[in-house]
Each structure stands twice: as C-alpha cells, then as structure tokens.
Amino acid sequence: MLRLLDRAEEVLIGSLIALATIIIFVSVTHRYALGFTADAVGYFKSIGWVGVSAAAKSTYFALKTINLVWAQELTIIMFVWMAKFGAAYGVRTGIHVGIDVLINRLDAPRRRFFILFGLLAGALFTGTIAALGTRFVWHMYHGSAISPDLELPMWLVYLAIPLGSSLMCFRFLQVAWAFFRTGELPHHDHGHVDGLDDEPAGAMGEAILQSDLTPRDLAEDPKDK
Amino acid sequence: MSALIIFALLVILMLTGMPISISLGLTVLTFLFTMTDVPIDTVALKLFTGIEKFEIMAIPFFILAGNFLTHGGVAKRMINFATSMVGHWHGGLGLAGVIACALFAAVSGSSPATVVAIGSVILPAMVAQGFPKQFGAGVITTSGALGILIPPSIVMVMYAVATSGMQATGPDGQPVDSASVGELFMAGVIPGLMLAGFLAFTTWYRARKFNYPRLAKADFAKRWLAFREAMWGLLLIVVVIGGIYTGIFTPTEAAAMSAVYAFIVAVFVYKDMGLKDVPRVLLASANMSAMLLYIITNAVLFSFLMTSEGIPQALGEWMVGAGLSWWMFLILVNILLLAAGNFMEPSSIVLIMAPILFPVAVRLGIDPVHFGIMIVVNMEVGMCHPPVGLNLYVASGITKMGITELTVAVWPWLLTMLIFLMLVTYVPALSLFLPGLLGM
C-alpha cells in the first residue's frame, strides 16, 4: 500500500514536469509555425508559385484553428501540483536544505533531539497549511471562481494545496518515526556521483545530502572528514 | 520592534537545522497568529499563489535541461573542443577545463551541475596525464561556479522573482523598476567571460610555475572535427541567449525549448543516454525543482510580510539617515552575503536577503541589475568554500578527496574570485554595459 503511494507520487511528479515541458514546446513551435506559414504564403505568391502558396495558406488556417492560449495557464497549474507533491517527495529523499552546520557538530543524543524537533516542526507547519488549505478550498468550492483561460473551477486547481501538504505532513511523520526507531535519515550511497542508477536526487542532490545543508543521521560518519 | 522579533524567530528556527522553507513558513504563521492585523485570508491567498508566475517556471525547465545535458554527452564534446583549442598552452587540460566550464555554463543554469558535467570527465583525464589531483580539483570547483554567472542562471531568476513588483524609489524619489530575467542574463555575459579569463590566467600562471604537462598542438582538421562534434551543444547557446535577446522567446520559453532540445541531443543525436534513463532524469529534476519552488513559496510569503510591515523601507531610510554612502553599503552587503554563504545555499540567501536589501540599494542609487550581478558573484564564492559550498561536495564525490584537502586546493582560484568580486562591486559598467548597448 505504502509502496503504491510512493510509486504514484513519483509517476505523478515525473509526468507533470515532462508534460509541462512538452506543452510549452508545442505552443512556442505553434506560434512560430503560424508566423512562418503566413510569411510563406506571401513569399510564394510574390514569386508566382501559386500552388505552394495555396498549400501554405491552408496549412496556416489549419494551424490557426488550434488555439493554444491556455498552454501557459495549464503549465503553471501543472507546476503548482508538481511543486506541492514534489516537496512531499523531497521530504522522503531528504533533499530540503537547512542550516545544519551547528547541529551536525553536536554529539549524537543532542543531534537526535534537534533532528526530531525539525521533522516535527515540518509536520506542524505542513499540517497547519493542510488545514488552512482545506478551509480555503472549501470556501472556493462554494464560490464560482473559474480559471481565466481553461475555465477550470478554481477549487480544483487549488486542491493541490491541501492534498500536497497533507502528504508532506505524512512524509515528515514517516521520516521522524523511522529516525526515532533506527536513528537513520533518508540518504543514498556515498561517493556515487556520475552514474544515474538509483539516484532520486541527481548529482546536485547527492552534494546537498553530503554537505552541511542537511542533517547527518546518527549512524553516519562526520561530514567534514 | 516586531521586525526584531521576526528576525530573531527566523534565525533561531533556522539554526535548529530544520529546512529553510519550514523555518520561513513557521515564522510567518507565528507572526500572523500573534502580532499582526494583516487579514489571514490575504496571506492564505499569497501562500497559494506565491509561485503562480510564469517566470518562476524557468527554474524547473533549466534544471531539467541541465540534467539532460549533464548525462547526455554534451560536456564531453565541449571538453574535446576546448582541449583542441588551448590544450597546447601552459596548463593544458586545466585551461581547457576552464573554457569547457564557461561553455557549459552558457547552457546550464547551475554551478554544481557544471562541476559534475565537466569535472567527472576532465578530472580523471587530468590525473592520468600527470596533473596533481589538487590542481584539477581547484580549477574545476571554482570554474564550475561560472554556471550561475554566465546565462542562463537559476540564481538570477531567483533574484528577479524575489524583487519583482517591489515598490522601490531611487535617491531622487522616482520609482525604479526591478531587474527582469532577460536584463540580468545579458548583464551576466561580460562579467562571466571576464571571470573565466581571470580563472584561466590563474590556471595558466600556476601551471607555468610548476611546469605541468602540456598537450601537442592540435592541427586545424582536428579542431574542426572537435568543433563539429560539439556543435549541437554550442548551438544551444545560440538558442538560449539569441532567443531571449531577439525576443523570440521569453526566458521561460527559452528554458523549455532548451530542455526539449537537450533531450533530443542527449537521446537521439549523441545517444549517450537511453530512453530508459529519461524517467530517472525527470524525477531527479522534479525533486530538485520542487524543493526550490517550496522555498520560493515560503520566501514570497516572508517578504510579503516584511514589506507590509514596512521593514525594508525603514531600513533604507535609516541607512540614508545614518549617512551611509553607496560604496559603504556595498561593502556591508558583501560581508553580509559572504557570511551567509557559510550557512546557506545561494537560492535561499537570495530569496531571503534580496527583498530586504533591494529597496535600500535602489534608495542609495545602485542599479538593480548591477546589484543582482554583484549578488550572483558573491554567491559563486560561497559555493566554493566549506561548510556548505556545494561545488566542493560535488568535486569531493568525483575525486574522493576530503573537504579539508579540497579547501586548501581551491584557494588560489578563490582568491582570484574575491578580487573579481571587488571589481564587479565597484565597476558597475561591467554589468551595465551590455544591457545598455542592447537598449534593455
């Protein structure tokens, strides 16, 4: 069950970033294809290639019927969803940066206290936001606001906030519980930089996990080796 | 008074080691529930709409493009091209490393990504050629920092986002517009090339002094071949910079185009990456982007609170009243940011500090674009020294050297960077010349 949730989360954020990229790519290409075919119509007409000109003309009108003004809005919505669920995924991968220079130099029992404090503070904040967000979306649901281009109901758009924040709150509690029991935080194999294998955070993420931007757990060697 | 409480709370929360985004959020919530009469619904809306700006979307796109480029063989071919051009000079591969970093920086918006891309190919090659490990690590760790100075740059987008729409007035009482992403990108070109030159000089000088190996001079045919191989990557520079400059693309569109382009080049042209690797690259990019976007959401909220309490404005008036001149202010800013660089990574620093410092800078007559470039150069320094310099950690992963050893290795180039920082701080023309020339 939990594994299913993990997988769904990964698929969701990966697909959202891919789709958003494709949408912007298509809309920009479309915009320039329109301009280009319009120019082509005039150019081929001027040099007397009537057939080609007519073909360009019909392409132009065919392209023009495709309306892509909603692309920008959809991209933004997708990224809001990606950001909210990605932030929850980030808790699971331990990628959220903080100032851990000081606590990484404390002895294990004190460090344990501060790490737990931080994780629970995260749960508190995201829990509060989830509650506020639910109220906010509830009010919207009873209003009739719709998004300007796509005409989606706004409550649906903002549903990402309560859902994403709740998931994030759950992840904080999950990580805190695992840390409480085992003294381990999410981290990856050390010294593993250029390969792509099993690296949910990429090389930059790896560097973040190695540095004092993230807490080191109780089992790890000191970071400043 | 309330300003002091906000700051104290933020600093205390951050020092407990919790994520920066959470500390920002909790500070804002505490303040809202206890001390202010700003209606909570306004803030709630701000929280939900904080990242709904099309400009911000450039960040995930540039991260995605960068990840495709890193794993897609573009870096390798850029290195071959740079090596064929300058490999026969003193410093050989080291010098080629600086040039390759500068080239890669022109397609990538992040410094650690540049270190990974160039470093993981060139550092083993340098060791095999007989360079001391420290030399190579020093060159690449610092040259990789060019990633955020030469456009595109994620930190510049952060600065533009953090200051956009701020009400700032100049010394003459006229309102001053904040810097746009496009302006900042153009402004970064000359300083970026200059810093590359400075770092190359340091590399050349030290290599000559210690008589490090040089390569045989490549003939024209070889250079042409290397250029043709690298052309797909180099073309992307034209797409991004040219596209933004001519107004064909907005910066965000350019970022999305470069992500698609990088994907095609990596998977279908160079074939260094298979389709099966794509989901992992997508996930890694989404992970990193979401983390940064989450900081932005909370930082926007924080700076909204600061502004609605009138804190930056009050700070500005106070500084002007205290008779602080612009050059004294810039020294203070540099010291403050260099200090912050010991604790935080660039995005967080820019998002928290820029909205506070920006109105003061404008009030003292400093150009928003110049101020942004200065901050970016300052952030570069922070990426190359411990305890949180991400470039160092990336380099440590590649070379298996300890952080302490690396810190010693980078100092000649770090010193070069500090000198360059002074130059950028006090010669605004370096940053403002190109945007001015282009009429931006």
Task: Describe the protein.
The complex is a heterodimer of chains A (225) and B (440). Chain A is mainly α and 225 residues long. Helix content of chain A is 69%, strand content 0%. By secondary structure, chain B is mostly helical. In chain B, 75% of the residues lie in helices and 0% in strands. Chain B is built from 20 helices and no strands. Chain B is globular, with a radius of gyration of 22 Å. The mean pLDDT of chain B is 89. Classes of the chains: A mainly alpha (225), B mainly alpha (440). At the A-B interface, helix 1, helix 3, helix 4 and helix 7 of A face helix 1, helix 2, helix 3, helix 4 and helix 7 of B.
* Helix proportion range of chain A: 55-70%
What is the general shape of chain B? Answer: globular
The greatest interface here is:
A-B, 78 and 83 residues
Q: Residue ranges of chain A: pLDDT <50 for 5 or more in a row?
A: 189-198
Overall pLDDT score of chain B = 89
Topology of chain A as a string of helices (H) and strands (E): HHHHHHH
The whole-number mean of residue pLDDT values of chain A reads: 84
The biggest beta sheet of chain B, please?
none
List descriptors.
heterodimer, A: 225 residues, mainly alpha, 7 helices, 69% helix, B: 440 residues, 20 helices, 75% helix, globular
